[in-house]
Amino acid sequence: MQESFEFKDRYDFDDLKKIIAILRAPGGCPWDREQTHESIKKNFIEETYEVVEAINKDSSVMLREELGDVLMQIALHCEMEREKGSFDIDDVVNDLVEKLVVRHPHVFGSVKAENEEEALASWDAAKARTKKQKKQSESMISVPRELPALMRAQKVQHKAAKVGFDWENADGAMDKLYEEINELKTAMSHGDGAEIGEEFGDVLFSCVNISRFLKLDSEEALTRATDKFISRFKKVEELAQERGIDMKEASLETLDSLWNIAKEIS
């Protein structure tokens, strides 16, 4: 028998758990009942990026809504496990609180942390202990492969730098980039696709290395560069239309000249 749901003027966390259970139960929503962890994992990613969009737009209204959508995804995954008798959302909350206490010995223990850097060092040390990570490579492996590639590279490089495996300054990282570019050129001359792919990856990895020394987030930097490209390309289209130029038929030299104009005025 399906559990009844009480309509209210304001709902709380218990109401969320109840309505998700109703949606997944016989007689509930046919779509919700059929979903699995696998089938909605991309929905989770999409909802998370929409939270990031709300933050970028500095919209509290949008953020409130999108955080709710992420919470719904969490509740759905937890309900699937509750149905199997594995765990429920209360177990997840319990584990999270326990982890926060353990990883904040500078708040709930005797460790001292007077600034952000010391607090992060305390967190990392506690995390390594709880995960039984004795080698830095183990902490690198723990960085999810599913992260955006630039973000993963930056996190792995940061972990290597913590044990002194790093350039002294940006000059060393820049020299390495030039070296990798030359190796890419050599691979291109060989015409071997696998070799070209490997060397191209090394070039990107070296670019991320430079971003760390410049105190830049490589993901954000590339996002801004892409935004700039779109803006300038839009201007190229406008210039081409004004001058009666068919971009599909125009020469590369013509398009490049329009690009240079767009670059000057943007």
Tell me about this structure:
With 266 residues, the protein is mainly alpha-helical. The chain contains 13 helices and no strands. Helix 9 packs across helix 11 and helix 12 packs across helix 13 (252-265). The protein is extended and about 70 Å long. The termini are far apart. The mean pLDDT is 94.
The tally of strands reads 0
Nearest-angstrom radius of gyration? 25 Å
Q: What structural class do you assign from the helix and strand content? A: mainly alpha
Q: Summarize the main sheet.
A: none
Protein traits:
single chain; mainly alpha; 266 residues
Compose a concise summary of this entry.
This protein is mainly α and 266 residues long. It contains 13 helices and no strands.
Describe the SSE topology.
Blueprint: H1 13-24, H2 30-34, H3 41-56, H4 60-84, H5 89-102, H6 105-108, H7 116-130, H8 136-141, H9 149-162, H10 170-190, H11 193-213, H12 218-242, H13 252-265
